[in-house]
Request: fold
Amino acid sequence: MAIKAVVMAEKGRAEIREVEKPKLRDGYVLVKVKAVALNPLDWKNLEVRFAPGVRMGADYAGIIEEVGPGVTKPFKKGDRIAGFVNCSNSLQPEDGAFGEYLVAKASVQIKIPDNITDEQAATLGVSVITIGQSLYKHMGLPWPTAPAKEPQPILVHGASSASGLYGIQFLKASGFTVIATASPHNFEYLKSLGASAVFDYHSPTAAAEIKALTHNKLKLAWDCVGTGAELIANALSDVEESKLWTIMSPDEDTVRRINPKVDGPHFTLGYDVIGEPYQWIDKVAPALPEEHDYIAEFVEIVPKLLEDGTVKPIRTFVNRGGEGLEGVLKGLEELKAGKVSGGKLVYTL
Reply:
């Protein structure tokens, strides 16, 4: 059966093509896609992971059409689910969310609660796994289901990104005092989600202001956009050991030059949570079962957090520039041009 999907056409350019419906594999579910969301990785993959004909898109919401062999999670046909697909991967070129159907690793997908729309649920995938990996598995922070007994400050840099917007809420639920950086037009939105203080990351005095607010005792930082090395290193305590995690290959030299007390920067790759080898630029990344197993457990707490309002869906910009896969192509251009902040582009199919 032929379906339509967004594929890599040439370096830096995607297009819609008719392709075969993806084949159901062991441990996977076949999903009819209802909505997709865009992430910076989508346009970046066109540049750094280009492979002709490979399908694109990581975030989606949809309805299960078929449950594959070996699935142990209690999913069934007709269930509404959302999550992450290891897209732009030449080892599995059929894997991608930007299409009428997709296959997804069942163990790391999220059952959508009834109070969450498809458009809202489509924003969850990349953000939830990034939060689970960075903040909880690797930084070792307490889960929202067993929060810290004593509040402790944590800096979230680039907090108006989708992962930052969700991260603020998870961290608040985990008992932390969230200090955020963003552009001023997003300050009030970040505070409404739980940030205690927000600073302009363009300001040359932001780091000094954060250090003063925290009395030079800030020991935790998370960079959601991967560009905050200098600001964060200056904001973290220079008299106590601290931890810094980021979402992309870190600027280690800058951090170490400014603040040798920082443990890091370290970074994670969301693709690891699938627990299978994948093509990463010019090499094959190995399977990391421990990453998969942790996130498979972590995603189980998400439906309840959404259902009871502890975590609220972030702001969506639905069908900006058009709907369906044609809208996705226009959205990729908007995202690459830096025109999206304080929410997420979502397109309905």
